[in-house]
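FAQ: What does the model actually see?

It sees only this:
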Amino acid sequence: MTKTRIASMVPLILLSMAGCRPQEGLTSQEAATASEELQVESQSQALTSNTVELGTNFTIGGAVEQAADELRSFIKSELSCADVTLSGHTLTVQYGVRSGCTFHGQTISGQHEITISRNDIDDVIVDHVWTDLSNGTVQVSGTAEVTWSKSDVSRHVVHDLKWTRLSDGREGEGKGDRTERPLQDSQGGLAAGFTETGTRSWDGKAGHWSLEIDHLDMRWVDPMPESGSLTLNTPFDKTVGASFSRPDATTIRVTLESARGSISFNKTTPP
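And it is asked to produce this:
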């Protein structure tokens, strides 16, 4: 579910800080390094979140085998490019067997195993295993457990992933623990976007990073959150904060907070 656009948002934020004096926050070199790390990590999150959302389309409350069969039918109807096999309550999806394997704007290849471990009215558990999942930019392998219920529309996602950027082999390995729910101020609900809170952390080329998502409201069509804030903890012993607001229908304002001050800039969005 969680197709967050942080992949496009964070590099803009950090590169905007590159001109600041070192004592005000990240240096230019640190900002560039952070931008690289966050871009790869965020692209990996967006890719797996896309397929997590794909794996939620079944009726809650039935037998796990019935739910898995229902999910198989849905995936085959959405992605004729993929081969889908079913064994008990586990599906194996091979993306990109035929051309045009696109879901929510990403062209996908690789293998995805989806196990509906529990399908009770008050407790749904779906386990995901990815092997060489790719969108042509990054390749990701790892696992996630996604839980929700019929009465609670929020989804709890706990992941453990390894990723590689295909253009240069840049690698990372990280974990995350996030809660996502449909936007509350939108008629479209989840169809329009989602709200996310939680944490992500990873080890990359420069060291250990962590991202604290205080609260982000995200529409699928926007290049960044329309409201909320996050905090980035870097291996340089420096912390950067960012907050988001929408002054009008086609603008998102980003305010950056560092050790000695703040700066703001606007981003134009679809109406």
